[in-house]
Design a protein that fits this description.
The complex is a heterodimer of chains A (about 130) and B (about 240). Chain A has about 130 residues and is an all-alpha fold. Chain A is built from 5 helices and no strands. The longest helix of chain A has 28 residues, at about 75-100. Classes of the chains: A mainly alpha (about 130), B alpha+beta (about 240). The interface of A and B includes residues 10, 15 and 16 of A.
């Protein structure tokens, strides 16, 4: 039996073979949430593009570097990067909640709290280090 | 209290696709979808659906209720005050009305060798500590109802994907201290239609009537598959 062939317009009596529409993910709240989780990568792509552009500008010299700094301060760039930050936090939240189910090393609540604490410590440490306070 | 229930009817002899048909049923606080279907069958004996135990253990009465996979016996009309539409389980071929062809699911299930494979043949009992039991017990509660397959968009898009229940059972036996068949199961799990076909949508675990959490099992399978790959690199 060929179960891969989608159809509906069958020639002879037999089972109905359902077709999965391209819009399947719009049909249910749960699937929309899943697609939102997956879509958090899109604003992140923009942020990564910004970083790569910055690296390229740095290699070109100080004028271009200043140009990049001005570019990063533009309101729409700041807005998109804020969106990327919010998307990362949202993705982190979903990831941290899924992780204890994939590697059940400790009670889930403890693992989730531990992951947020580690994020906070690393983020604070990096900020202090890169900001020159350490 | 009378209630309208819409049922997706399909006659393989005459229909090209399922059509909704409305029926009136008597319902009170304890009327399940399965009870309603049995009432409808009194009105129209040609209605086809599967059922057996009426207590969420046989796993036969899986249907889509308003587009969500549910066991008919464990779903109650009182929770659907507005619209109630019952159709056949998604992602499976419909044989008649609410009866689907479960063969793809059963084939995937058999492919992962879901039984104890003993390295040592012994007539003595195989002892197991409570801690060893706890490792797989949750995954052993699967009743093979197939709801997780209807919830899984990856199985819908690629019917060759082993799917939630089969991978969960593979994991269940791989985690069992009495089992020695992991090496025989890993090639299936490592294949492109194995654990890596899962993108952790997680809806399978939402719809599971026995709280087996197949999404967790599948993704634990990814850890097992990755470590299996790394270990194999160091073997001659």
């Amino acid at each position: 039996m060929n179960i891969e062939t989608p159809g509906g317009n069958k020639q002879e009596p037999g089972p109905y073979q359902p077709v999965m529409p391209r819009t399947w993910w719009l049909q249910h709240r749960y699937f929309r949430f899943y697609m939102l989780r997956e879509a958090t990568v899109l604003p992140l792509l923009f942020f990564i593009g910004c970083l790569l552009y910055g690296l390229y500008c740095l290699s070109l010299g100080e004028t271009q570097w200043q140009h990049w700094l001005a570019f990063m301060a533009k309101p729409w760039v700041v807005l998109l990067n804020l969106l990327a930050f919010a998307a990362s936090l949202f993705h982190a939240k979903t990831f941290f909640e899924l992780f204890p189910r994939v590697m059940p090393l400790a009670p889930p609540g403890l693992m989730i709290a531990g992951q947020w604490l580690a994020t906070l410590l690393v983020a604070t440490g990096l900020t202090l280090l890169l900001g020159g306070w350490l | 209290m009378s209630k309208t229930i819409n049922i997706a009817r399909y006659n393989p002899q005459t229909d090209s696709q399922p059509q909704l048909q409305a029926f009136q049923v008597d319902s009170d606080n304890s009327t399940s979808v399965l009870d309603a279907l049995l009432q409808v069958q009194q009105q129209d004996p040609s209605l086809g659906f599967r059922w057996s135990c009426r207590m969420a253990i046989c796993g036969s009465c899986g249907v889509m209720v308003n587009g969500i996979p549910k066991l008919g016996c464990k779903t109650f009309l009182r929770d659907y005050p507005d619209k109630l539409t019952v159709s056949a389980l998604a992602h499976f071929n419909v044989e008649k009305d609410l009866i689907v062809d479960m063969q793809p699911f059963l084939t995937h299930l058999a492919a992962v060798k879901p039984y104890l494979i003993n390295a040592e043949q012994s007539s003595q009992p195989h002892r197991q500590t409570p801690a060893q039991l706890a490792k797989y017990q949750q995954f052993a509660n699967c009743i093979n109802c197939g709801l997780c397959y209807s919830a899984c968009p990856q199985f819908g898009l690629n019917p060759e994907f082993l799917g939630p229940a089969a991978i969960t059972l593979a994991q269940r036996y791989n985690l069992d201290s009495r089992d020695a068949g992991k090496a025989a199961r890993m090639p299936e799990l490592n294949s492109k239609n194995g654990v890596w076909g899962c993108t952790f949508v997680g809806f399978c675990s939402e719809v599971c009537p026995k709280k087996v959490d197949p999404a967790a099992a599948v993704n634990q399978g990814k850890v097992a598959s990755a470590s299996d790959f790394i270990i194999s690199m160091f073997k001659p």
